[in-house]
Amino acid sequence: MDTDVSVLSTPQNACSLTDLPTELLVQIIVLHRSSFDILSPVLEDIAQRQVQHEVLHALSQSCSRLRAVCLPFLWERFDLSMVKFQTRLADYKTALVPTIFSYIESVHVSMRGCRTQLQTMFNLVDFLRTLPNLAVLRISWPNFRMIQDLCSAFSEACLPSVTSLYVPVLLHGIFPAFPNITTLVCPAAIIAGSPVLARMKLFPRLTVLGELRMVGSADLISELARDFPQLRTLSITTSIAPDCENVFSLLNAFADLSELCLFHEDSPDYLSLDVLVSRAKDVLLGSRSLDRRVLRIWSNSLSGPQLIYEERF
Q1: How many domains does the chain have?
Q2: Which of 59, 63, 138, 159 could form a disulfide with 108 if both were Cys (CB 3.0 to 4.6 A apart)?
Q3: β-sheet bridge partners, residue 78
Q4: What predicted TM-score, i.e. pTM, was given to this entire model?
């Protein structure tokens, strides 16, 4: 029997992207979008994120169906350059119509190259307060004067929706503005008894602490275990020396710990990888948590941090 080639080349039931169920469209976007892991020491691929952002923007402009599906993903994270915010505040107010404010769940603020102006910091805080579903705030590259101005601007603010905060440790002065923090990342060295730890006590719900850098001894772990025994996830970016091996017995005080991230340095001055893995697994296995245990060990290289060990059990 002969086959009509024209029938095969022009199928009668062709399906376009907009014919797919909404649930499937959402899953396609979720699988291919870039994501920011607040605990990962690896720098984000900004170029890849920009490409994906442009694709979502184009899709959202194509038709009403894709606009409804793509807009929440397009605006769930807002990257804010303070240089542009400072010089083009009127443009921001025009572009960011209130109808999209409810989509924004995460704001990443870069202070790089920004001139210090106190009013600009107050404008930033006013903008953040207009976002009803803001859950994640990251502030990077502030200089010392900016830190002072930010602390002043946040002094009268309260952002109860924010649960994850990623800021330099010197910005601990803004902590009182965030009463419901559960995840905190402060990439800088912290010593026992420092003002940072006193400020952290404002976060009684804290369960995730990232990029902790110990200085000198393991006393910091003792203080954290006393104030935050409920921690479930802890990331320590300081390589552990043999004379600080007691840090593992101190970590046992975190009875609900289920995820531990450590750094290894291939040097006789620090614990070997085998010892590090063995001691860290003992800590996690001794936890009473019902969650799956996760152990990650990183190492620094010329190209940046590399994950050299990962185990889930």
Answers
A1: 3
A2: 138
A3: 107
A4: 0.84
